[in-house]
Amino acid sequence: MPRPTARVLTLLELLQSGGTRTVAELADRLGVEGRTVRRYVDQLIDLDVPVESVRGRYGGYRLAPGYRLPPLMLSDDEALAVLLGLVAGRRTGLTTTEHTASETAAAKIRRVLPKHVARRLDTLLDALAFTDQPGGFDTPDAEVLLTIADAVRHRRPVAIRYTDRDGRRSERTLHAYGIVAHAGRWYVTGGDARVGEDRTFRLDRITDARTLPGSFEAPPVGADPAQRVLSGFATAEYRHEVTLRIHGTVDQIRARIPASVATVEEYEPAADEDPATEERWLRVELRAERLDWLPPVLASLDRPFVIERPAELRDLVTALAGRLTSCAVLG
Fold first, then answer.
1. CA angle 234-209-86, nearest 5°?
2. How far is it, in rounded angstroms, from Cα 331 to Cα 322?
3. pLDDT digit string (tens) for 280-331?
4. Bridge partners of 211?
5. CB 54 within 8 A of CB 34
6. Which helix (H) or strand (E) holds 12?
């Protein structure tokens, strides 16, 4: 059974999570009676923790606004979650330009952990192996990231300095809808006030961000930032424009051709059809700099398909079919 001191610390953690907690709720979480909760609150007050009593029907206890809490106290599971998150962030590129920040944060956590816990966590990290190589992505500036995040939340326009993939620099006013992490990179999607259209920008290519006065209307319902980014990849300008018709379900197609690669035109299903499960002909459009990777993907679909364009892709599919036939060993 937890000792009283452990329960007092648990009470502090519950209060620091925010809001007002009723006596009944706290008693249930701590496994004690209401009068014991009040005694634990008195102990916190004796330790100069400003716990306020809230009267009324929805009353209870809360921490005083603006109170600076003591240093974090992490359980074994919480410490493990934080350290693994730091390791994963470094490997996937989801960090900021301050590359040492995650390393110094991990070192600080290790220093304050009990020795036996630190040894167990170090043992896990030493034994941990990854099947992929560490990410070598360019990462965004922390101040840029936080400034744009604040602009997203409060619907404030933000002035940015941007360098595109060809090295061209420009200054833009962005109405940012959301920040998206995809394939090891950070992106921001929003309305570009200069051209009056939606755009997606890589955050590591933004060298400066400054919040401007004013506000803008939220985008229409259903304008999901992640979907905007994926659609932007699928419709980006590349050398080849490919149009296919594939007989199958949306799920079958998406299993091999994700939303970041292609768009799928869903025809209006009949009243008794489930658009996610009923097999039918769907139009798939994508753009690619090269075509040689597409024939194996289409073969892996194991579904009937028609190539509408380009003719070069038909030749590549025919050539792949010939190679597979010639390499097949008959029993």
1. 70
2. 19
3. 899 999 888 889 999 999 999 999 999 999 999 999 999 999 888 888 765 4
4. 158
5. no
6. helix 4-16
